[in-house]
Amino acid sequence: MRHALIVIDMQNDFCPGGALAVTGGDEIVAGINARMDNAEAVILTQDWHPADHASFASQHADRAPMEVIEAPYGPQVLWPDHCVQGSQGAAFHAGLETTRADLILRKGFRCEIDSYSAFFENDQTTPTGLEGYLRTRGLTSLEFVGLATDFCVAWSALDAARLGFKVRVQTELCRGIDLDGSLGRALSDMRAAGISVV
Ligand code: VGL
Ligand code: ZN
User: Fold this and answer.
1) Probe ligand 1: pick from 116, 117, 158, 177, max atoms within 8 Å of CB?
2) Residues 186 and 150 sit within 8 Å (Cβ to Cβ)
3) What is the mean pLDDT of the chain?
4) Collapsed DSSP state (helix, strand, coil) of residue 97
5) Which one of 57, 89, 96, 184 has the fewest beta carbons within 10 angstroms of its own beta carbon?
6) Which band of pLDDT confidence, cut at 50, 70 and 90, is reported for residue 154?
7) pLDDT at 197
8) What is the mean pLDDT of residues 106-134?
9) Angle of the 182-192 helix axis to the 154-162 helix axis, nearest 10
10) Which residues contact 37 (CB under 8 A, 6 or more apart)?
11) For the chain, what percent of residues have pLDDT higher than 90?
12) Which pLDDT band, with edges at 50, 70 and 90, does 60 fall under?
């Protein structure tokens, strides 16, 4: 079984001082770099939004960050503006060893739809192409680390399990947002899906 490490959204905006800071987001960088030694392939994802992305509260009249709206594809949390294409906030944390990545996969670049998962946009049908990349390289065992546990990490890991990959989430190398209990729900959903949550 060939093994890939998939590092989700280790970007400045998700670290302390960033626009959508996840508590302790920067604490996991060194541990993630060390995990790269165990993997046959290292893949980084990068949240990469246009400045007028529909997931930004700023694009909706009378809406505040963290409110939930009904998008055409289902419920959508409205976020503060974050990870705008080409901005410093969208750049990887300076300590992350990005030179070791085989692939950098950008997601969330379409204005009208968000993409938490590294595999599918939030309509859960539009593919990002990652599945094909992994399959053609024979990478069938996947370990997920990064930010945020309860959004992009969980959605990616759940899609990977549904697609038939062997999936493990290394929780000490993840940090969560925890919006209204979302962290606990994400952990139990992942366990229920047969994901090894360690
Ligand atoms: C993420 C919210 C919005 C994440 C990305 O990386 O978990 N969360 N965009
Ligand atoms: Zn985003």
Assistant:
1) 116
2) yes
3) 98
4) coil
5) 184
6) very high
7) 98
8) 98
9) 20
10) none
11) 99
12) very high
User: How many helical (H) and strand (E) elements, i.e. helices and strands, does the chain have?
Assistant: 4, 8
Residue 87 to residue 100: CA distance in whole angstroms? 22
Q: Report d(CA 91, CA 64) in Å as an integer.
A: 25
Whether 152 sits among the annotated catalytic residues: the reply is yes
- In the DSSP assignment, the letter for residue 170 is E
**Strand partners of residue 49:** 84
What is the distance, to the nearest Å, from the Cα of residue 178 to the centroid of all Cα atoms in its chain?
Answer: 14
- Name the one residue in this structure whose structure tokens are 């539009």: 126
Look at the block and give the residue holding tokens 């309509």. Answer: 123
Are 22 and 177 within 8 A, CB to CB?
Answer: yes
Ligand 1 binding residues, C-beta < 6 A: 9, 14, 47, 79, 116, 147-148, 151-152
Residue 193 is predicted with a pLDDT of: 98
